[in-house]
Amino acid sequence: MVSGEKFFKENFHMSKNSFDQLFKLVEKDLAPKRNTRPKDGIPPKLKLGLVIEYLASGGLQRHLASCYRVSKQHMGSIIDQVCDAICRALSAYVADPCQESFLEVANGFNSRWNFPNCIGAIDGKHVSIKAPPNAGSIFYNYKGFHSLALMAICDASYRFTYLDVGAYGSEGDCNIFKESKFGTDVLHDRLDFPENATVNGVKLPFFYVADDAFPLCKRIIKPYSKKNLSAEERIFNYRLSRARRCIENAFGLLCSKWACLKKTLYCSPDRAQKIISACCMLHNFLITHKSTAYCPPGYMDKFDDENVITEGEWRKRISSDSLYHTTFSASAGRPSDYGKYIRNVLKQYVNSNIGELPWQRRAAFVE
């Protein structure tokens, strides 16, 4: 396999050092079995390179098989094996939902994005797949194509802290959340959330920020969506959008770097689920190790000292038909009274002398 630094950055979206680190983590899982016939004994590093290039380029499997001198018959099993190995080896890069990790995430959102008690930004996408045989319309979504749903939460540094991959595309987007284990745990308060923390003199629970695809409740706060918003409500929406922009950027980076997600995945739903999960795990691995080959300077949205935004380079690399644009549809769920109360307290806080930012009125277009 070619070993130049340029090759790794262009074909794998990572440095050679990152690739070598990754290989050390997955090597044992990729080693040929003892009873493997010599002609099928594909070197582990070759397997990893083949699959990483497939994920990064979105190239045709038969073309990559030819380039790596691997039989087309083995491509599918190699993809399964490598994606499974990546997900196992990198599972530690997704934080366990415990009080300690929640508080660490909340500190990040408060210090970087000036939004208190936030333990993550949540959103969902639809990944296009080939219609499975005899599946009927079970994977057919409201946008008019067959898909698997990807629901994710990220921290203030764009790392995914929760992933749910594999819900049927035909499920209503609000149901994907409500019927997932995570959604059930959130709605019934079953996770190891920290004790309420004081905001503007009021003890408030820790929560996720979301858009209208998710229900307003104790643990999920979303913008005001009525017409004729007051200046205070517009400022609150702006402040929340700063925090929610993290998941927007996380998905933008994911979709722009792993080109296999830009196209329809012509494989079984089980294999598609492994591919999507592996891309997300690789994203966390490379973000955690601050890989400039994966996320170079200027690639993400950036605010200057006056809060003027410079949009990230990833936005220029997202095509109109990208996975990025398949956001979950708005939910018609009834908001909880406690969720509305929390949002109102936060609105008062961001408009108070304690919580306001000097440029927020200009940024929210209220002056």
From TrEMBL:
Instruction: Please provide the record's keywords in A-Z order.
Output: Hydrolase, Metal-binding, Nuclease, Nucleus
UniProt cross-references to Pfam families, sorted A to Z: DDE_Tnp_4
Q: Which cofactor does it need?
A: a divalent metal cation
One example GO MF annotation:
hydrolase activity
Q: Which regions span the lipid bilayer? A: none
GO cellular component terms, semicolon-separated: nucleus
Give a yes or no for keyword Transmembrane helix in this entry.
Answer: no
Subcellular location(s) per record: Nucleus
Superkingdom to which the source organism belongs? Eukaryota
Main location (coarse class)? nucleus
Under the heading InterPro entries, the entry gives: HARBI1-like, HARBI1_dom
Instruction: Indicate the segments forming the DDE Tnp4 domain, all copies.
Output: 122-284
The UniProt similarity line reads:
Belongs to the HARBI1 family.
- Please identify the protein, giving its name as recorded: AAEL017220-PA
Source organism of the structure: Aedes aegypti
Phylogenetic placement of the source organism: Eukaryota, Metazoa, Ecdysozoa, Arthropoda, Hexapoda
